[in-house]
Each structure stands twice: as structure tokens, then as C-alpha cells.
Design a protein that fits this description.
Elements: E1 5-9, H1 23-49, H2 68-93, H3 97-127, H4 136-164, E2 175-179, E3 188-192, H5 198-223, H6 229-245
Antiparallel strand pairs: 1-2, 2-3
Helix pairs in contact: 1-4, 1-5, 2-3, 2-5, 3-4, 4-5
Length: about 250
């Protein structure tokens, strides 16, 4: 017999699935799975087009142009935002609404800081003629990091909306499910708050996913070594010019 779920108390809630997960959480995990495939495609595209042997490589954005110092600061900021998101969820579960709001705002501000660093980096590239259309390396770089930045922006908007819409303000409202009660099965009670805090948890799952994706992107783009023949070509040209003068 199938289990039945009879809500007791006030408010509506989503009963758990057969996996023991709230249906909204299951939907979010499915969505994040599809997003993983999306970013895997973008990463594969970057590796296909990062080859320095392409004829157009030296005519646009190159590996030597990437500012690893500034981007490292952005990576640190984004990782710290994962910590503040965890603290926000912990405060919400403890019923400390003031600290919950504080940590949510902190997370959103850290995400905004990361976006400001990325916008500055993109602007500098564009001003020096090293935009997305400069070469294949630039196109793949801007596509990968740009789509990730868009996801961060969506997360920041989501975080601020949690505050403005007062999501989770009734997280302590009591509600119970009687599992199997109407089907003649062995019954047990599962105390819950009616899922009032689930929307915040969904935002947390999304935010941690965005942070984890950046760890992969930062490692693959900025930390993996790559030969830069453009620098060698410029050095050779300078040497030839020097000998000609002599």
C-alpha cells in the first residue's frame, strides 16, 4: 500500500518523496544536474579552443593577459560567501532571524563583490581590444566565465528576494505529517515546520553549486599551465631588432 500524508496544523507543505526528500529539493537537484552538463559543455568548448597553436591566438586575448592575482581575490570572496550561506541556514534553523538576515545580506554582498571584479576584468579586456570576438580563446573564455557570472547574478537577486519577500519568517510554525495513518499501516509522526525554510535551503543549494563550479573554472583556466608562444615571439622579435641596431 502507498503511504498517505495527512497534514496537521496550519499552512500547506510538500510531503516527502519515497527518497525521503522534499519534492522541491528533488526538483532542485535535478535542475543542478542539468546545469552540471551545461557547464561541462562550456568547459569542454574552452579546452578545445584554448590551444595556442591556432593562427588567431596571438591576435586577441591570450593566457598571459589573464590577471590571476585579481581573480584569486574574487575566488576567495566567492568561497567565503559559501560559508556565510551555511551560517545563514544555521541561524534560520535556530530561529535567530536577525543573524539569518545578517548572513544572507553578507552572502549577497560578497556575490556582488565577485561580480564587480569580473566586470572590471571584462572591461579591461574590452578596452584593450581583447574582447569576445578577438579570437577563439577569447570567445571560449568569455562564454564560460560570462555564463558563470550570470548564474552568480541570478543567485544575488535570489538572495535579496529572500529578504524582501520575507521568505522563511514563519520557519518555526509547527506542522506534522501522519505517515500511513489512512492506509492501515504503522503510523509515526514526522514533526516539521511545514517546509517554510525549504526555499532558503534551495537557494543555498544553488549558491553552493555556483561556488563549486567556479572552483573548477578557476583551476582549469588560471592554474593549469599553458604555453604562450606569443610571449616567445615578442622576445625573439626584440632580440632581432637589437641585433639590427648593433
Amino acid at each position: 500500500m502507498a503511504q498517505t500524508f495527512t497534514p496537521r496544523g496550519h499552512g500547506a507543505a510538500h510531503p516527502p518523496t519515497s527518497l525521503g526528500l522534499d519534492m522541491r529539493k528533488l526538483g532542485m537537484w535535478a535542475f543542478l544536474g542539468s546545469e552540471s552538463l551545461f557547464f561541462a559543455t562550456l568547459i569542454t568548448n574552452f579546452f578545445v579552443n584554448r590551444s595556442s597553436e591556432r593562427a588567431d591566438y596571438c591576435n586577441g586575448l591570450t593566457y598571459a593577459d589573464l590577471a590571476i592575482g585579481l581573480t584569486s581575490v574574487g575566488a576567495f570572496i566567492l568561497l567565503m560567501s559559501s560559508l556565510t550561506m551555511v551560517l545563514a541556514l544555521a541561524a534560520l534553523r535556530d530561529g535567530n532571524r536577525r543573524m539569518y538576515r545578517t548572513w544572507i545580506v553578507s552572502t549577497a554582498l560578497l556575490g556582488t563583490s565577485f561580480l564587480c571584479i569580473q566586470i572590471y576584468e571584462f572591461t579591461e579586456f574590452a578596452l584593450h581590444g581583447k574582447g569576445m570576438s578577438s579570437n577563439n580563446f577569447g570567445a571560449a573564455f568569455f562564454a564560460l566565465t560570462g555564463f558563470h557570472g550570470t548564474h552568480v547574478l541570478i543567485g544575488v537577486i535570489w538572495l535579496f528576494s529572500l529578504l524582501f519577500l520575507r521568505v522563511g519568517h514563519n520557519v518555526k510554525r509547527p506542522l506534522e505529517y501522519v505517515v500511513g495513518g489512512q492506509a492501515g499501516l504503522r503510523t509515526h509522526r514526522e514533526p516539521t515546520d511545514g517546509g517554510a525554510g525549504i526555499p532558503v535551503e534551495l537557494c543555498g543549494l544553488y549558491w553552493h553549486f555556483v561556488d563549486l563550479v567556479w572552483v573548477f573554472i578557476f583551476t582549469l583556466i588560471y592554474l593549469l599551465p599553458m604555453d604562450d608562444p606569443c610571449g616567445e615571439a615578442h622576445e625573439a622579435l626584440s632580440a632581432v631588432s637589437h641585433l639590427t641596431v648593433l
